[in-house]
């Protein structure tokens, strides 16, 4: 067979992978190369046939291949003589896993070239920002595939696990929320967790999430992706919260501020400027944009710095255009991608979510898992689901004024339950109840 382009593939490695399966049948169980990862079409077809034979429990030899493809189609796998020659071209089956890795590296190289070609083509005629974000996302996928532990080795992780057991990690192992009872229930927010916080409009979702982001940014990194409010509006809220400044005064400080308010504002702005808080407020963000920004921050700060990400809110993220006619499929894909992102970048993702109006029709208006809007996939993907409930939101005469319930409805690695926080609406500030 002629060599076509050795810069794009390694013919010897491809033939050694497929040929080894004829010499040592049990290697088919260890074969992680997919037919489409091979460059040569006859080898792609031949590997597909071999995998089918294995699924059917049939032997892997020339006769079985001939029977599976039919004599009239034997040239699609290179012909009988080629298969026979293939076996003779295998130096040793002992290097099977090395041959596999070479094949995959060349496949990744071809993918990178394809992505680069697409970026060049789209840059001439498409949206530049979208082109760059999509290109980065596809390149990230290739890199993550490359770093996957192909053999699933566990010894290193077992050693790390044992070493963790010898340490006194304290009650709070994750990123503290700043609220004692909530941290006691969760052990702090764990890296790689996807957390969903749901509530009806105006209950206090954004304020709650901003409080957590501000608290986390004192020692860790707090990141907010705001799809509903501008950066300036969020910083006004942050200043109001930290400085105990009434939010109505913040609308027109020059007119409404008293002397104390100005000193409180200076203190608040100083605290925020010294924090590790990042805010992104671009209109119409998609998941590729969010992922690329987080990846950049992670590369700047490294793995040792913990990161907590707030997305306000999930249903406003722009999904894949192919799901435009199916909102549930669109939200499902966004949810799955957020969970993948939390794991791949090893960070906490807190996504705010709207709840359906079904809450309003019940006598007890505390939210349930079934109230999550648009997709049951969110419930499945999330490691933690918390709901916010205020009795005085529904009953102006409630004796539970300025108290918000955080209802932990799901926690994959911990208990569920309800804790109460004080909510100072005029400052957009949450406090431990004893404060």
UniProtKB/TrEMBL annotation:
It is an enzyme of class 5 (isomerase). It comes from the Bacteria. Pfam families: DnaB (PF00772), DnaB_C (PF03796). Residues 168-435 form the SF4 helicase domain. The keyword Transferase does not apply. It catalyses: ATP + H2O = ADP + phosphate + H(+). The keyword Nucleus does not apply. Its EC number is 5.6.2.3. GO terms for molecular function: DNA helicase activity; hydrolase activity. Keywords: ATP-binding, DNA replication, DNA-binding, Helicase, Hydrolase, Isomerase, Nucleotide-binding, Primosome. Belongs to the helicase family. DnaB subfamily. The main replicative DNA helicase, it participates in initiation and elongation during chromosome replication. Travels ahead of the DNA replisome, separating dsDNA into templates for DNA synthesis. A processive ATP-dependent 5'-3' DNA helicase it has DNA-dependent ATPase activity. This is Replicative DNA helicase. It comes from Rossellomorea pakistanensis.
